Each structure stands twice: as C-alpha cells, then as structure tokens.
Amino acid sequence: MADTMEGVLIQKDDNDNLKDLIIIGRSGNGLTSVEQSIHEDNEYRVIDCKGIGDAGQDITLLERRQHYFNLRDQLRQIHAILFIMKYGIRFTQQEKDAVSVVKSTFGENVFKAKVVIVFSYGDLFRQDMTEATDLDECFMTWCRDQFGDIKTVFEEADYRCVLFDNKTRDIDRKTKQWLQLKSSIQKVEHVNFTIDERLSQNQAPTNVVAVMGERTSLSKLIDNIKELVHIIIVVTNFFVHLL
C-alpha cells in the first residue's frame, strides 16, 4: 500500500524488517529504473521523494521541506538516502537546492553518514568512454576529476557514487549495477546517525531560507548562460575529435 504526500510517496509494508531507503531526485533523472531494481530485492522499502528541485518548484521548497519533516517523523530508521543525478547534465541550482533541503531536514552531516549518489543514464557515460578498458575505474576517476560545488558533495559522501544504466536490457549488467549499488548502501545502512532534533518545521536554518527565496531574473539568466557555454564546449570538443 502506498501513501502520497505532496510528491512524497511512502511504500508501506507489513514487514517491519524492511530497511528504509529514501530516493531523492528531479523528475526525469531515471528514478523509476532505480526503484524497480530495489523492488526486485525484498530487503528494502522505497520512500520516493521525486520531484524536489524540479523547474518551477523553487517557491515551494519550504513547503516541500515541511512535508519531509512529516516523513522524517514516520520513519523507524534511515538506512540510506539515494541522491539521483543524471549523467551529462550540469550540477544546477536545482540540485544545489535539493542538497540544502536534505541537509536542513536531516542534518548537516547526512551526506557523510547516509547518502549514496547514483548517476543515471550510464549508457551516455559508456558512449563517452568507448576507449575505457575498465568502465568502473573510469567512472570513479571521472568523479574525482570534478570540481566546484559537485566536488564538495562528492567529498561529503566519501565518493559513494554509482553509475546506473537505466536503459539497459542486459540481465548481467542490470545485476552487476544493482550489486554495486547495494554494496554502497550496505556501507552506510548500519552507520549510527541521529537526526538533529534542533531542526524543526518552523525553524529553518538561514542558508535554507535563502534557498527558498524566489530566484531573480538575473540568477536565471546566469544559469542559462552557463548552460549555453557548456553546450558550446561539448559541441566544440565533438568537432575537434572529428578533425
């Protein structure tokens, strides 16, 4: 049975032995495929928080955070939080907002203690790295080569990053990537983690209040320019390889 709560879907089960996994990410980031893999393993219960950080959701983040507090109070224990990102897409303001909401709800140390970062659309990474002899090693090297805000998030999560091909039909590949994800989950599921009870629905930290504010037109323009520059670089590199 499932209860829906403003974008938060709680999959309830009579088996109290199931371990709670929270899944957070933007719509279209491949969350459904990750969920399906988890459902095939009878060890976990999925708590779906998809939609956070979606375009147009900026002014409702504070409201969504309040729903997360309601969710938080229902959980017996947080075994792991899966933060889903899409390979090939920049680490945008929406992802930064999502990180802030997670921290403000569960505590500043939650990424270090409980978060596993899952990159969906692993097929695109495979296409970009056709010459790689070891795709797993290549992916971890790519993660460690990142910089800026996303590097900070990776470091906080101790580089618990998993590449997930959500389009593959290859049974062996699907099994392997689920085992890799499960291994990362197992690294954090027994970590003692106490939610900061000082965080309340009515007392948002200063940095979160700033995040919840309506983004200005200038900020959006800057994001668009950065995206355009990123596209130009990708296209330029493509033609350079053709020469």
Automatic annotation (TrEMBL):
Q: Per its UniProt entry, which superkingdom is the organism in?
A: Eukaryota
Q: Which InterPro entries match?
A: G_AIG1, GIMA/IAN/Toc, P-loop_NTPase
Listed under GO cellular component are: membrane
Tell me the Gene Ontology biological-process terms attached to this UniProt entry: protein transport
The AIG1-type G domain is annotated at 38-192
- What's one Pfam family the UniProt record gives for this protein? AIG1
User: How would you describe this protein's topology in the membrane?
Assistant: Single-pass membrane protein
Supply the Gene3D superfamilies for this chain. Answer: P-loop containing nucleotide triphosphate hydrolases
Transmembrane ranges, per UniProt, are none
A GO MF term: metal ion binding
Put simply, this protein is called AIG1-type G domain-containing protein
**The species this protein was found in:** Biomphalaria glabrata (Bloodfluke planorb)
